[in-house]
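Recall the central idea of this unit: under ordinary conditions, the amino acid sequence of a chain determines the structure it adopts. In this exercise we apply that idea directly, starting from the sequence alone.
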Amino acid sequence: MVKKKGSGLLMVFADVDVEYDADYNAWYREEHLPERLSAPGFLDAALYQAVKGGPRYLAVYELESAAAMQTPEYLHMSQNPTDWTKRISPTAIGRGTVRNIYTQISPEESDPDTMGRGMAPALQIGRMEVPSDIEAKYNDYYDNQRTPRNLTVPGCLFVRRYHAVEGNPQYLTMYEFEHEKVPESLAWEDFRKQDTMHDYIGGNYSHQPGSPGVYRRISPGRAF
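Accordingly, the structure predicted from this sequence is:
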């Protein structure tokens, strides 16, 4: 089995004007994703586009660990961008570009059967700031109540939670879906109405603008 997932993530969010869409998508598909996947510790990658929330584009890189961002091979390609990269990358044309590196906190140990799973057809990404005085209860509720419940929703494949090692906000939750309509289902909505996290944790956490965002995979292309 080829390992596709580790304990780290690189996430790059960007708003890109529609006039750049064709070139931006071609750059990711033909050059940037293959280039990054040639670096040690980069296990898989995909480009997603928002169908709800934002920013509009999201590039996700599955890392063996956050240390993959420090290898000589990655640093060389990062410090020596191609001409295409200089012209069309998120830092060149993107607005509100956010680049964060995360390490997985839940589940603490991933099931070996999930390690060969490729990039999900759709994602829901929550990016949250959580006050320190409610962090313990926030984590307890998410891992022991919200996640197990949401995993019973048809089409919800997996849930992973992360803490930032570079960038903000400090918490990220990634829901992997069979398709982008999962959070519009009656089962998902019923569970959302039943959720009592705010009462349990005794406080409030805040989402970043556009969070939670729902994204569909556009590169590699989907079979449907």
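Residues 85 and 119 are 23 Å apart (CA to CA).
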